Amino acid sequence: MFYVYVLKSLKDLNWYTGSTNNLKRRFIEHNNGESFSTKHRRPFILIYYEACINEEDARTREKYLKTAWGKRYLKSRLHKYLSVKSDF
Q: Whole domain around residue 76: which residue ranges?
């Protein structure tokens, strides 16, 4: 399986979208500072993911979620999560 995921930085509250074939390993790498693009924004929580059977589908979905339309989709999909004030 291949995964598209969205992380929320607890430092700056911004989101990071990526894809991987091993979601658990990749999440740990982000939180350990092993990813150049996110090492200064950690720690992270996983707020969303999708599973795809094929890598090309996952990459295409990742690119879509990074567009304005994709961000609107995520905000709609995560409406309840975003409407609840959390301690994160």
A: 2-80
